[in-house]
Design a protein that fits this description.
Elements: H1 5-16, H2 20-28, H3 35-49, H4 57-61, H5 66-80
Helix pairs in contact: 1-5, 3-5
Length: 82
């Protein structure tokens, strides 16, 4: 995983602060052709738009690509039990 530990921790903290019931309700919608991937990227989008954590999408894309970010998101979702 190429995401820095600081960015990983911040992203996990932001996603972990979301209302669990709302997150799981969103997951249950099973949107897109690949619902699991769509769910992870929706979480990322919500996290980046939340304005918390002093982190922007550009911070990630300076050194990582979509594959690196998705690997981090998979791990975060698994660790948070989402």
């Amino acid at each position: 995983m190429k995401i820095t530990p600081e960015h990983y921790s911040t992203l996990k903290s932001i996603i972990g602060s979301f209302n669990r019931e709302q997150v799981l309700a969103h997951k249950a919608l099973k949107l897109g052709k690949d619902p699991e991937m769509r769910f992870r990227w929706d979480l990322f989008t919500f996290a980046m738009r939340s304005g918390t954590g002093n982190i922007t999408i550009n911070d990630f894309y300076r050194y990582a690509n979509d594959s690196h970010i998705d690997t981090a998101l998979k791990r975060i979702v698994r660790e948070l039990g989402l």
